[in-house]
Design goal:
The protein has 288 residues and is α+β, with helices and mostly antiparallel strands. It folds into 2 domains: 158 residues, no CATH class; 121 residues, Lipocalin. 38% of the residues lie in helices and 29% in strands. Helix 1 crosses helix 5 and helix 2 packs across helix 5. It is elongated.
Length: 288
């Protein structure tokens, strides 16, 4: 974490972003005054708003700058291109402010607010789109901009590598149940299929038989909800399920991701028998 803080402070104190906006200062964050102004304004605001999300500060700041509407997480090239063609100013300035505030919080506190972390990740991804990189002058300036965006994304990934690698579509391959030291393994690739879809804030699972009987009953099952991730502790909140008796329950697991394999481990309490069962599920990532 110490290295990450150094990187964040280095960014705030002088990473040279290609100058693109109207007030150019190559020594300031994002290479101009808006990023520097946003970061310093956050420094002044934060001590008296320690429990308030930086997203609130950022929204108020951008409103005061009369930032025009475009979703903070927009990655649709056609929408961004239409926005630029319309001659609406402020998209790059707004992106500068989002990145500056996120890394200002990182430098101050060693963390980034969850919602702001999502916004700054999408912002950096947006700034890597050709429709925007082409706005940064010469080829050398464009390549410099791309390199810095990738460096900042790498800092975020290093700070929270699991949260980013967890996202995706996963197929359940096997499940191991350990009861009083005795293990039983179920192969979920034979006769059935289950997938789990995880994004930045929610999960969903779906399963069915691969060879349904003639009566069309395929034992379909599905559910989903929100989740929280703290370190390797992954907690699912089952908000939707076909059996309403299960809705509202939470399930706690530890998770590890290595390459394209996800291991999810939890404990099932069997109150009637007075025992705890260890459940270990193995998933593989599905690629488009």
């Amino acid at each position: 974490m110490h290295l990450l803080l150094i990187l964040a402070c280095t960014f705030l104190l002088g990473l040279h972003f290609p100058a693109q906006s109207q007030n150019n200062d190559p020594g300031a964050p994002f290479g101009n005054e808006p990023g520097s102004e946003a970061a310093h304004a956050f420094y002044n605001w934060r001590p008296t708003h320690l429990t308030t999300s930086p997203v609130i500060f950022l929204k108020d700041l951008l409103d005061s700058w009369h930032s025009r509407p475009l979703a903070w997480d927009e990655l649709d090239t056609l929408k961004i291109k239409a926005y630029l063609i319309a001659g609406v100013p402020g998209l790059v300035i707004r992106d500068e402010a989002i990145v500056a505030v996120a890394f200002a919080q990182f430098a101050l506190e060693g963390k980034i607010d969850t919602l702001l972390e999502y916004d700054v990740t999408r912002t950096l991804q947006r700034e890597l789109l050709p429709v925007l990189t082409s706005q940064y002058g010469s080829q050398d300036q464009q390549q410099q901009h791309i390199a810095i965006m990738k460096k900042l994304l790498a800092v975020l990934n290093q700070a929270h590598p699991l949260s980013y690698s967890l996202n995706g579509t996963w197929q359940l391959i096997s499940g191991t149940m350990i009861t009083k030291g005795v293990s039983s393994v179920t192969d979920y690739t034979k006769g059935q299929q289950m997938i789990k879809i995880i994004n930045d804030s929610h999960f969903a699972f779906l399963s069915h038989d691969l060879n349904p009987p003639a009566d069309s009953s395929n034992h379909f099952d599905a559910g989903g909800g929100s989740y929280t991730l703290t370190g390797d502790q992954y907690i699912e909140h089952l908000d939707y399920y076909k059996d309403r008796n299960w809705e509202g329950k939470t399930f706690t697991f530890t998770v590890t991701v290595q390459n394209d394999t996800l291991i999810q481990k939890g404990i099932e309490k069997v109150d009637k028998e007075g025992i705890d069962r260890i459940i270990i599920e193995k998933y593989i990532r599905l690629h488009p």
